[in-house]
Design goal:
The structure is a single chain. This protein is mainly alpha-helical. Helix content is 54%, strand content 12%. It contains six helices and five strands. The chain has a three-stranded parallel β-sheet with strand order 3-4-5, with helices on both faces.
Length: 156
């Protein structure tokens, strides 16, 4: 017997013209009780959502937006991210196709497995560490170039 899993979804972000379609879809498919649309959420409140969610799903055509992946990794949450933007996340996200709902469902079913869930958290932490290390290296290079340029300008 296959066990049925229930998911609850919280959508955040400013309505860019698609909210009515999402609300109609939820009503038509009788899942309105499982879906909440919060609109724009202040940073102080979004932290609570990250802390209490099971995973972060970023179903977007635009990007890459690096803030949701970084926040997912920061709060030790598995990330589901669009295939066309996967160059940003690499293996630190479960990849899905935005135009294929079955692809997203397959991704959600993967994170139900404890081993996959834990593995994605580990990969996320490694990806976040790499982002920080890359940033530090680039800051050092920038500072050296800045000092060199200032020395040239001031003829020191």
């Amino acid at each position: 017997k296959k066990e049925k899993k229930n998911f609850n979804f919280i959508f955040t972000g400013e309505d860019k013209g698609n909210l009515d379609n999402l609300v109609r879809f939820a009503k038509k498919n009788k899942i309105s009780k499982m879906v909440k649309f919060l609109g724009f959420v202040k940073k102080s409140k979004i932290v609570d959502l990250y802390k209490t969610c099971k995973a972060v799903v970023v179903p977007t055509y635009l990007g890459p937006s690096n803030i949701p992946p970084l926040e997912a990794w920061q709060y030790s949450k598995p990330l589901l991210y669009p295939k066309h933007l996967s160059y940003f996340t690499g293996s630190a996200a479960i990849i899905f196709e935005v135009d294929n709902p079955k692809s997203l469902i397959q991704g959600l079913n993967k994170i139900i497995k404890k081993k996959v869930y834990k593995n994605m958290i580990i990969k996320g932490k490694k990806a976040l560490d790499k982002v920080y290390q890359d940033r530090i290296k680039k800051e050092i290079i920038f500072k050296k170039q800045l000092i060199k340029k200032l020395n040239e300008i001031w003829k020191l």
